[in-house]
Design brief:
The structure is a homodimer. By secondary structure, chain A is α/β, with parallel strands linked by helices. Chain A folds into 3 domains: about 180 residues, 3-Layer(bba) Sandwich (FAD/NAD(P)-binding domain); about 150 residues, 3-Layer(bba) Sandwich (FAD/NAD(P)-binding domain); about 120 residues, 3-Layer(bba) Sandwich (FAD/NAD(P)-binding domain), CATH 3.50.50. In chain A, strands 3-2-1-7-18 form a 5-stranded parallel beta sheet. A 5-stranded parallel beta sheet of chain A has the order 9-16-10-11-12, with helices on one face. In chain A, α1 packs parallel to α9. Chain A is globular. Chain A starts with a strand and ends with a helix. Chains A and B meet through α9, β21, β22 and α11 of A and α9, β21, β22 and α11 of B.
Chain lengths: ~475, ~475
């Protein structure tokens, strides 16, 4: 008889942990409780499903639940919610549709993920207001958008006062059915982060008129302003209505949302999407006495251990070490969840394994543009971590000057003045930006100085790069700006 | 009066050095002697000019010669050949069309580049046999190919014995004019390295029937066999005739080449291109007593100094330090030439600067494929450098499983078994391979182990990558194969 490894939450971190534990130590009993119907799905793929480039929701499920059960021998229980943890007795209390029971554990992984948060304004509970945190919501949004497309709306025309108000609808009706009946033409997106921008892209492609509301002066908070401005100009050129520096003060409507309210006035919409951030699901952990960190997420050590014996946390509910600031941070992203889940599975199987820190690398597609970032790009954040940041922004070409596919690429880099240590970068462009950020991320992991980055032996061929890759040029320019 | 900085050779290393010296120390007199008509041109762009995606030869010239003279205040002398160096008197002897003169120097940079070498077989001096080492040759090849296209040949049909022999031609005629008259339909390319493959691609696109001859069993010598095989299969699928493991024993013909001869028989061709390698131009240096290294190129220290006082060498004529083997190597590539030239310019201007070593990163486009390499990928080479190489090859997808643009990517990685240190990688695929190699190159610069590479916080979004980037997956698989 092996020990029992109980996992709370069946997404990236949880399923990676259970799979790795069973693979490395088949004698372990791995039991996963997932309160919903879906496991191991790609939240990051939902905008592409809504846009239509991904055909079916089930395409977003990385691994079929049956494979976990039949091939990986994991005891996966869908629609089972863990409602309590007793760290003394080492049991969890589980509720399903037939009632409640206790499940003992030898090791426990809390992988409860995160949820979308609504801004603290009135009206976020109206109908036709969505976040993008579940596949069911993705389905509803796509159905709404498809309806619009099928009806051949003429979107992106001026929104005038005489625009026909949406029809009244029965609030008891199911959301999807309602949306099919409603035929939205205008969407208001609240928040200009990744989710907001990816949905702006997806719904624009679906033919809707898109209004994007951003409280601060620029979209993409953790990017340099010069990089964000490239994205903003591109969105405007394509016809997306940007409302920058514009806090949303409320959503108006009777049963369903009919307008987004701001200090500058009210913008009529047929649907609204909240992309204002996520919060870790920590309530279950906190009630059991698991310590939270300063970010509000679960505090862990490098082995993903919480303060409670035999209790681990990983994924979007947990903090992670930032390799530049050397402090805990909250960066809920898919790769970290997978990597940390896998490390916990290995640890439980008998080989204690560190999940590893992060440098905060991220990338997104926004229409034709690729935007990417890594490290510390905000000077205030860098100063808080004890650095003296200097920064530069360059715009150069993605390929040799004579290559017909060459496109501009804008790169912002930051470094610590006294040491020359690279601190971070953000970049944007239409040609091969996405994977260029990985070079910078790797240099950050290695703690490289600009001198070292400038001398990297990177690849060159005319269709892929100028002789000096833009990353090298950016490092060279910033290095030249360092005080002697 | 500043000191006099004399540069021999007006391509990447030479012009970078002169430009940087003048920029950092305008009082320096920078004199560049270039024996030909062209400076600062992109040899790497010539295949794209021949293919036609680059319109004009002058597009390949990075900087107009007048800019060097008028804006950068460089004393640039075209059609001036340096025929001797007197290190005692610190002068060079220069020949131009009017005669010879001596030019004193305080610092001298030898940047004489490399030349294409012909294989030691008969017939390489026949007409219609080209290398690709000058813009004039690129022009001749393109003119030949365009002629073929314009005449609407039906290329890529079986080459039978009754194929009409090419017309006789006057060997005194100019090559380009001759080619226009000749109308080639079949080209034999000798050598399956970058130049050979890029020209195979370019001439295939131009409508010629392409035969590629490679002495060893696989194209792309410094790549893993599994990676080379992907390229070979792709070329075959597109209709290129591969003759692998087939040494060329001679070129046959009267005035012009008419067949490539091999132990397996003779293949009729209308033109032949030699892509069998390059050799450093070291004769001038060697005669003056400059020490050559074991590779045959000029030996230098980390500051690009030769054994002679005040004499530097950089670019395709010089050795460079390999950062994995810690030994001098000969990797004549554009970025190194630019970087080392720039470092010499800075040194001459008063700030001694190291050019920096290389890890041997390279990339090329071969039809739809991108192929890239870095580090030590050949187990023998790794063993010679004192490592115990282990290696693995994986094939995975370039994007999320549900992304319609996903394409296979094959990655070979090698590491040192006792230490887990990453040694090198080669990769191939049709989607975003090129810049992925830079992540590996950066990890090599940092001396990372597989444990460290596996934990890199790389970027992820469905259109650009699976959650685990293929580089991470390859490192993970190889790490799992290391002895415990």
């Amino acid at each position: 008889m092996g020990e029992t490894f109980v996992v709370v939450g069946g997404d990236a971190a949880g399923m990676s942990a259970a799979s790795k534990a069973k693979r490395d130590a088949p004698e372990v009993d791995a039991v996963v409780f997932e309160k919903g119907d879906w496991v191991s799905y790609s939240a990051c793929g939902m905008p592409y499903y809504i846009e239509g480039s991904v055909e079916s929701l089930s395409d977003l499920v990385a691994v079929d639940p049956r494979e976990f059960v039949e091939e990986r021998d994991i005891d996966l229980r869908l629609r089972h919610e863990v409602t309590g943890i007793d760290p003394e007795r080492e049991t969890v209390t589980v509720r399903n549709e037939r009632g409640s029971f206790d499940q003992p554990y030898d090791s426990l992984l809390i992988a409860t993920g995160a949820r979308a948060t609504a801004p603290p304004v009135a009206g976020t509970d109206l109908g036709c207001v969505f976040t993008l945190r579940s596949l069911d919501e993705a389905r509803a949004i796509r159905e709404a958008a498809e309806r619009s497309e099928a009806n051949g709306d003429a979107p992106r025309e001026p929104v005038g006062p005489d625009r026909k108000p949406p029809e009244e609808a029965d609030p008891d009706e199911d959301v999807s059915a309602f949306l099919r009946a409603r035929d939205p033409a205008v969407v208001g997106i609240v928040g200009g982060g990744y989710v907001g921008l990816e949905l702006a892209d997806a719904l624009y492609e679906r033919g809707l008129e898109v209004h994007l509301f951003q409280r601060s002066p620029h979209v993409l908070g953790p990017y340099a302003d010069a990089v964000a401005e490239v994205v903003e100009n591109h969105l405007r050129d394509r016809g997306v209505r940007l409302h920058l520096g514009t806090p949303v003060t409320g959503l108006a409507g009777d049963a369903d949302v009919s307008a987004v309210e701001t200090p500058d006035g009210s913008v009529p919409v047929d649907m609204a999407i909240l992309g204002t951030g996520v919060a870790p699901n920590v309530e279950l952990a906190a009630e059991a006495g698991v310590r939270l960190g300063g970010t509000g997420a679960i505090a862990t050590d490098p082995y993903n251990r919480t303060n409670l014996d035999d209790v681990y946390a990983a994924g979007d509910c947990a903090e992670v070490q930032h390799l530049i600031t050397d402090a805990p941070t909250y960066v809920p992203l898919a790769l970290t969840a997978n990597r940390h889940g896998r490390a916990v599975g290995r640890t439980v199987a008998g080989r204690p394994t560190k999940g590893g820190g992060v440098v905060g690398t991220a990338v997104a597609k926004v229409m034709e543009l690729e935007v990417a970032r890594t490290g510390l790009t905000d000077p205030d954040e860098a100063r808080d971590a004890g650095f003296e940041p200097v920064e530069r922004t360059i715009t150069t070409g993605s390929r040799a000057s004579y290559d017909p596919g060459r496109a501009p690429i804008t790169i912002h880099v930051a470094a610590d003045a006294p040491t020359g240590r690279l601190l971070g970068a953000s970049m944007v462009g239409a040609d091969r930006v996405a994977k260029r950020i990985d070079t910078v991320a790797t240099a950050l992991h290695a703690g490289m100085t600009l001198d070292e980055v400038e001398r990297l032996d990177l690849s060159y061929a005319p269709p892929f790069s100028p002789v000096w890759d833009p990353v090298l040029t950016a490092a060279k320019v910033l290095n030249g700006a360092l005080p002697e």
